[in-house]
Specification:
It is built from 5 helices and 9 strands; from the N terminus they run E-E-E-H-H-E-H-E-H-E-E-E-E-H. It is α+β, with helices and mostly antiparallel strands. The chain is globular and about 40 Å long.
Length: 154
């Protein structure tokens, strides 16, 4: 498992298919990027987080930021999730897990005493220059979008 990048470091490059087409880190050059990693489409916490980011999209755009959600779910699942929940934000598929590895979000987790590997809910605020400005590891969904927006505006 890769080590997570740190605040002040260059964000790891990526290339993924998303519900808005092919995206790379360079696709967002010149604007802030809120890159958030979540475990799985259509689960309660992941759905709430996607809805919260979608509802706040205009505020993020007004502050010069784009939002991109990332999970290992397929583009087909992402498109279904987006349509079902009327999401306004793009979701990217990291099917091979390489982006999760590069950002250190593929981690050992424990549920009901069972250990397994999965995506740790995490958010990275990347500056217009590609430098990581802030990291939220092990995110709790409630109030998270407001924290990210406050950091962006602060």
């Amino acid at each position: 498992m890769a080590t997570a990048p740190l605040v002040g470091e260059k964000a790891p490059d990526f290339s993924m298919e998303s519900t808005a087409g092919h995206v790379t880190l360079a696709s967002f050059a010149g604007k802030h990027l809120v890159l958030y990693f979540y475990p799985k489409d259509n689960t309660p916490g992941c759905t709430q987080e996607a809805l919260d980011f979608s509802h706040s999209l205009a505020a993020f755009e007004a502050a010069g930021a784009a939002i991109l959600g990332v999970s290992k779910d397929s583009i087909t699942k992402h498109k279904s999730f987006t349509a079902k929940r009327s999401l306004a934000i793009p979701l990217a598929s990291d099917a091979d897990g390489s982006v999760c590895e590069a950002y250190g979000t593929w981690q050992e987790k424990v549920m009901y005493g069972r250990s397994y590997l999965g995506i740790a809910r995490s958010t990275f605020l990347i500056g217009p220059d590609g430098i990581i400005r802030q990291i939220w590891p092990k995110v709790k969904v409630k109030g998270h979008v407001d924290e990210v927006l406050a950091a962006l505006l602060g």
